[in-house]
Amino acid sequence: MLSLIGTYECKVDAKGRLMMPSALKKQLAKELQEGFVVKRSVFNSCLELWPMSEWEVMMKKLNGLNRFVKKNVDFIRKFTAGVKLVEADASGRLLIPKDLIAFASITKDIVLTSGGNIIEIWDAVGYEEAVSNEDGDFAALAEEVMGNQNDVPDGLS
C-alpha cells in the first residue's frame, strides 16, 4: 500500500492539465505508467486522485458489497459518480476532466496533498479554508480521532 508524503502548490492550465511536481512524480514512478482514477471527494469540495493499484483494492471492497441491499447500491453509485480514468501524457501532465474541475471549483492555482494512499486535488483557496482553524479546534479533533489509540510501537513500553 502506498504512503504518499507532501503538499504541493501548482497550476492547472486552461485545458485542465496539471503538471505533477517532481517530488510527487518520484513517489509515483510506477503508478505514472499504470494510470489513475480521479473522482469527487466524499466529504469535501476537492478531487481524489487514486493510483490504479489503490483503486483496484477499493473496487474489491465495493464489489464485495451485497447488491441486493439498496443502501449498498446507493453508496456504490454515489461513490463512483463522475469517476474518470486519467493517464500522464508524454510531458507528465494529467488532464482533469471539465466536470470534475467544476465540482471542485478549481481555478488556476491548486494544491496537491497526500492523503495516505491517494492525492487530494484542491483549488488553492478551498484548501486554505479547509485547513484553517476556523472550523473548530484541531487539537480536540486529534484527541477524538487518535486519542484512544493504545498501540505501542514494537520494543517500546
Notable characteristics:
157 residues, alpha+beta, 6-stranded antiparallel sheet, 8 strands, 36% helix
Number of beta-strand segments: 8
Q: Approximately how much helix is present in the residues?
A: 25-40%
Order of strands in the sheet with most strands: 1-7-8-4-3-5
Major sheet: size, sense and barrel closure? 6 strands, antiparallel
Low-pLDDT residue intervals, each spanning 5 or more residues:
none
Q: Treating each run of at least 4 consecutive H or I residues as one helix, how many helices? A: 7
> What class, by secondary structure content?
alpha+beta
User: Average pLDDT value?
Assistant: 90
SSE blueprint and pairings:
Blueprint (H helix, E strand, L loop, with lengths): L6 E5 L5 E3 L2 H6 L1 H6 L1 E5 L6 E5 H12 L6 H10 L4 E3 L6 E3 L2 H6 L5 E6 L4 E5 H8 L6 H9 L11
Antiparallel strand pairs: 1-7, 2-6, 3-4, 3-5, 4-8, 7-8
Structure, explained:
The protein is of the alpha+beta class and 157 residues long. Helices cover 36% and strands 22% of the residues. It contains seven helices and eight strands. A hairpin with a 4-residue loop joins strand 7 and strand 8. The longest helix is centred in the middle third of the chain and has 12 residues. It is globular, with a radius of gyration of 17 Å. It starts with 6 loop residues before the first strand and ends in an 11-residue tail after the last helix.
